[in-house]
Structure prediction request, 434 residues.
Amino acid sequence: MPCRELRYTSRADWPTLNDWLKGRWNPDLSMEHQVREILRQVQDKGDAALVDYTRRFDCSDFQEDWIRVPAADLTSALASIPAEDLTILKTAIDNVRQFHEQQLQRSWFQTKPDGTVLGQMVRPVERVGLYVPGGQGGTTPLVSSLIMNAVPAQVAGVDAVAVVSPPRADGTLDAYILATAALLGICEVYRLGSAWSVAALAFGTRSIPPVDVIAGPGNIYVTTAKRLLVGQVGIDMIAGPSEIAILADESANPEWVAADLLSQAEHDPLAASILVSDSPSLLENVKMALTRQLALLPRAETAKVSLTDWGALIAVPDIPIGAELINLLAPEHLELCVDDPWQLLGLIRNAGAVFMGHHCPEPIGDYFAGPNHVLPTMGTARFASGLSVDNFIKKSNIIATSCGYVAKHGQAVARLASLEGLDAHARSVVCRNV
Prediction:
């Protein structure tokens, strides 16, 4: 099986492992100039630039009046979806909504004895733009991405959500994307992809009002555009390729563990799938299971490259040492395939999402359970969190002081301003005591 077999016994082994894994984060900056030019063209020419780029790369006879999907298309798409699929989509949306409703924050105020009022006002942003990849030329629509990005924005109270997704060669979008948008109550859907769609959301055009936050996964052009537009708009995160780490003991089922590793390897040649275990027999059995299962996958070539370059079976002396390694890896997805995952959870500090036990595979979180599947990658779970309601709100500090407060504390404030050489700051306080 083309997969590294490694050992980790202490932090002294980490630099070698880390140097290997850092090779995944080798962003191709060669297209940055192209993306900057795309952004400039859209900012200067608006819809004309959107039509030009879409004709060149997606749909050769694309027209300006095709940019926005008519409401009737959303309705007809909804009617075209099998009832059992609609039920699944509705349940997934409900599960995701119920989870994110627990994240809502409240405004708060604090009154001091002297009457000073301090607080924080929580408000949603007004408009959000979501990028939804079409997937393999529109044949594998990422409806889960639409759900995971739209629901927290809606729970936050965002006024309007706009969706962009690249059209197929005939100018259409997959019915499942349109039907999911309809189920979510989203009426703004645009047939646009790549960096030009991100530019349209950020700058606005005649057809598309500008947004405040852009979220959603995409290729390197989408990611680069989002990165270059930080400051013009808010973004969700700069995500790298997908990854899974599994911490497993002898109680784990090797066939299940192999299937879970492959669930990420099939994503992308740069996806990382890592098993950490204190059981030599499990590691050996998983290696054999990977070989058997890989041969059965439609995306076997992608998974094989991923496992060859970024897959690993790592032996550790015991599970606590394995947890230490997991915290250094800070994986996007972590499965605790151990006899008692709840006892182990307290040792975990760094992970985007933790899947507990033998019957909780990572795809449960990707699609259905409720927590968000937009998660920090490339070790950024050390300091970053998954997409949440927080990405779509902003907080304003509230300060209310009285004449008495200024009289009591004005000189101290003025002195601090003077120390920084800001005399006008000092005068704006002191003048109120004259």
In short: The mean pLDDT is 95. The chain has 17 helices and 14 strands. The two ends are 82 Å apart (CA to CA). The first strand starts at residue 4 and ends at 7.
